[in-house]
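the two lines:
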Amino acid sequence: MTRKPLTAALVLSMGLSATAAANEGMWMPTQLPELAKTLKAAGFEGDPSALADVTTPPLNAVVRIGGGTGSFVSGDGLLLTNHHVAYGVIQYNSGKGHDYINEGFIAGGRDDERPANPDYRVLVTVGFDKVTDEVLREARGKSGRAYYDAVENARKRIVADCEAEGGVRCSVANMYYGSDFYRVRQLELTDIRLVYAPPRAIGNYGDEIDNFMWPRHTGDFTLLRAYVGKDGKPAPYSKDNVPYHPPAHLTMSLDGPKEGDYAMLAGYPGITYRLRTAAEFANQIDAVLPRRVEVFQQLIDVVEAAGKDDADARTRYASQLQSLKNNRKRAAGELEGLLRSDAKARRAADERAMLAATDAKYKADIDALFASLDAERAAGERELLVGLMSSQTQLLRSALLLERLRVESAKPDAERESGYQQRDQALIEGVLRQVQRRYDPAVEKAILTALLTRYQQLPDDQRDSHYDNLFGRTPEQLHKALDELYATTKLGDEAQRLSRFEAARKGAFIDNDPLVSVAAALVMAQLSAERESKERAGEQLRLRPSYMQALFAWRAQQGRAVYPDANGTLRISYGKVEALHPRDAVNYSPVTTVAGIVEKNTGTVPFDAPKPLLDAIAKGDFGSTADPALKTQTVNFLTNLDTTGGNSGSPVLNARGELIGLNFDSNWESVSASWWFDPRYKRAVHVDMRYLRWLLAKVYPAPALLAEMGLPRE
Amino acid sequence: MTRKPLTAALVLSMGLSATAAANEGMWMPTQLPELAKTLKAAGFEGDPSALADVTTPPLNAVVRIGGGTGSFVSGDGLLLTNHHVAYGVIQYNSGKGHDYINEGFIAGGRDDERPANPDYRVLVTVGFDKVTDEVLREARGKSGRAYYDAVENARKRIVADCEAEGGVRCSVANMYYGSDFYRVRQLELTDIRLVYAPPRAIGNYGDEIDNFMWPRHTGDFTLLRAYVGKDGKPAPYSKDNVPYHPPAHLTMSLDGPKEGDYAMLAGYPGITYRLRTAAEFANQIDAVLPRRVEVFQQLIDVVEAAGKDDADARTRYASQLQSLKNNRKRAAGELEGLLRSDAKARRAADERAMLAATDAKYKADIDALFASLDAERAAGERELLVGLMSSQTQLLRSALLLERLRVESAKPDAERESGYQQRDQALIEGVLRQVQRRYDPAVEKAILTALLTRYQQLPDDQRDSHYDNLFGRTPEQLHKALDELYATTKLGDEAQRLSRFEAARKGAFIDNDPLVSVAAALVMAQLSAERESKERAGEQLRLRPSYMQALFAWRAQQGRAVYPDANGTLRISYGKVEALHPRDAVNYSPVTTVAGIVEKNTGTVPFDAPKPLLDAIAKGDFGSTADPALKTQTVNFLTNLDTTGGNSGSPVLNARGELIGLNFDSNWESVSASWWFDPRYKRAVHVDMRYLRWLLAKVYPAPALLAEMGLPRE
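prediction for all of em together
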């Protein structure tokens, strides 16, 4: 019950090594055979070697979908993912008279399944091969920018060769920060259809209020179906297409999870930073996060003050304000978590021990890496400010986009910076068109004043002379420059922006405008910063592998395996169903029930459970989906599995490899887990598949789908 | 784990009868011998009959103090109560250079113990005798106001006779709503001194944020000492006084509480409504509480709107706004709790069953009681509005006080309405003097506009013609009347109010003022409403005993004892240390530890634990006060004991009658317990005496006090 601040002594008394818990790890499937013993010890009843190959069952049932994860759950291409991952598909199909978001959707047979938005994709991994030598061959012996370019060119060449055969999408994944590279081949399914979605008040019950919270009561799932051409090959939507027959699909368990049960999860986690250096941890905790909290708070204050007496400005900036607040909250939560876990001191102690044990041959590289990271760290505030000047403004962003588009458009399309190629131009045009609804000159000037005032206070070696020249060094000069700029620019006029867009995309000269002139200077500064940044990136790509080698050796001494930081490739995590004890005397059960839906229900968004659900709960007819011990219907459950963004929609499997849950969220205490895994607090939140089965059986019936998945009808 | 809405069937399945749980009951000590079996079954190891007499040990160690409860904890008159019960004493002794509120206070020996404010009292109950016949003798055969007056006159006579002997304070307590009356004789100790108070950030750690919350981490205790004259008799403060030697004192246990342990508590609970009729329950749930929520919200909106662009008004009304919000929150919480417990339907079913089983001889009285309650119910909204017109205004309240004071001052002091006697005049003067800091004419007019607009919409038989004449029947008339009134009244001037106060207290004519004229008419309406109300009160006093007899008979059939609703007399509750499961998947442990202090600490009020406390926690030197199972220092604990306001400071005893805790709060889910005891949610929050002992031993040491209480020094 007691929860003392975690100290090294306490950690050791818990029987854990200093940085890893039994359930920590986003393992590459290829690593699982080496973990066979611990997998079995944890309770897995299957053959660990069967999990090693992403191109064979069961892992080839797990797909990448809409920024998250999904899995096939029938031989006819039925796909399970989160309601929030498929939200765009539901929205795309909603319209006047058919509000599938609020009312949900059940296809009245296969003919009634609705095509997703045309850019919606499902990627099935069909190849995963190590190509380290090929990637690094040209780079060896080089350094800095040359090293960077050699690696990038090799990656581009491998992707081009791989995609040449057609029908697949390829990429090269960087594992362990430049130590290893893998070629990932993925089948790209392009005809995806909406089959079953619960109403918003089930699929997103609790919305932002319950987001990151436990206990949860959300049915965050949707069923889709993948279609292919009659030849079985991926094809764009056509009514003649037929259901895709995946090489494997998952089977839903008829039993549910209970505390202590083994659980595992497969998915495509996006990004983590756990193998970063102690200095990077310290910088994140001491500088990056506090700075983000401070700057976002400053912008929140500016926007709120500007909106105080101006209802119109308040409306235009409502969404931006919400996003600033989310950013601030998230940074504060991450900071709080890292402090609570004492991550800085613990990572530092771990690195010190590693360096003491390191083979001398790595030392020079590691020292050089540390020096490069120091230089990068110094640029942290400038990079944050410059990024915000573009992302938090409307007119200045437009000018920067136009000018950079002009610069890039002078090059062949393939050589242009990503974001400015032919395929990106619709997005740029969209940004230029939506300015009117989100722009107020007084607010934009106030935001820039806050950001540029901070910029003016940067040390000399961090300020670019373009900024000094444009905005001066004093508050008065800044004030005057911004006033003149916004009084004279014509970019507030949509027609003016669009005519300049037409010129810029051809690489042609853009009609003169004061803000475009400013942007031209700022793009010069941007290009110069990018050159520096790529130089550093090349050095780090070259040097980090030595740090990794030292780490591998140190972990080997500790008897521990190392998993690569998340990078959007398929990973597996294993652990168990586990309660959460977040604070003194507060204990959360790992399984929630429908009673909680009734308790939370206020009748207004987001706690407005639909009447059919409330009626069914009151009726209490839970049939075979009721929990035998709890004697009621469960809704969500918690595991200690290792997840991050991108794991949304990941299937959760039991000891026999059967589907028991659908991952959809983490608890608030896990926000900092992208840097540091703390087994006391890290939990993942899942939909209990028995809740899905009950909804399909008794509340919004879809008997044909239950039959297709081989499940009982009640 | 599941928590379905409570239905009658579920209640029965829990093995409880429809309205009582094992731990429900604020028993009169005289009832304990009849409960001996259940007390023993619950785990009490002492002799139940020893608890029957409030004038013998251990109950005569439990005293009434400053609106709450206290207990003697040494033979030298050392008294234990809550920090918040003794707050006025600490405040009275604080001043420039000695901030005992924030820094705490430890007397440097008996000479250094500081006298309380002169009106602070400790009452030791020395007599408790049934006087029903004497009280009702003259009333029998009468009805309405005559019955009321006969009872009141008998009570006044009994009190006067009782106090004639001197040195005691007497009162007549009404049990079971006019069924029984008891004469309570209390020794009045008037020299009370401050001995030991922890700093505010311990005694009130968490303040309003944690109020009503669990888990708690508050050291809400203070030690005082009672002194008497050298002759052993109560006497006002004198440096020659000597410590009082109480006839009994409690002994602190060296063991602490753990889940499931027997616990009991003695104290002076203020008021409950559990024996009210089903119609009164329905009215509370359907009308009184929703109306309070609505009207308080309306006033909150009015005050917030008025303060929106007026920082000065915002400051003047900050405290009133906070109080309105607390009132609204409290009413909403009570309503929520009563709905959650389905109290209306359950009380109605219980009463229906009772009436079906009732002896015919009670039926006429019960019908007449129901009719009288109907009439009272109709006046509910008017009474709320009239009350708020006085309590939520400054100038109108001043005028009403002045005019009523004038009316009452024409009578002999003893016959004046309570609140307007000689002894009340300092309070009235205080109210008249503090107007300036809390008054803004625009806000007061807005408040009155809201209240009087509701008044205008009351049905004809509820509106008093004085109001119609003064404020009209339309928004325009109301607006005009208020504008004129506040433009011309001189009561905004303090000197004007005070000169009229001097006249009013002599019963003399008050210099003319428009608002005083209005008040004169409103006081006429008030007096007429009071006449009606006393007429009804007399009838209910006459009739309720028949309802009680029917209830006693029904409870006897059910095999259950009945305890009287709380009325400020000494009561006993027994139950056990019990965890709380307030919502689906949320489980609170019943004991908190010092780890929670560290977790909650932000360094700013109210989570700003003092450094010596944080250092001592970090040091972890808990000695003999550590919990043997948790291996750390505990702070607070939960029991399922039956408490309400007035139980603050109640001693919590273990099975052997030893002191283990100090009651100081309830959980939020208990707010509705004044009407309905729901064993699922009703908990009381206590300071663990081991926390007190640790603070006195290791953090803010007071070894002499530990020795005086017979406790180990570490």
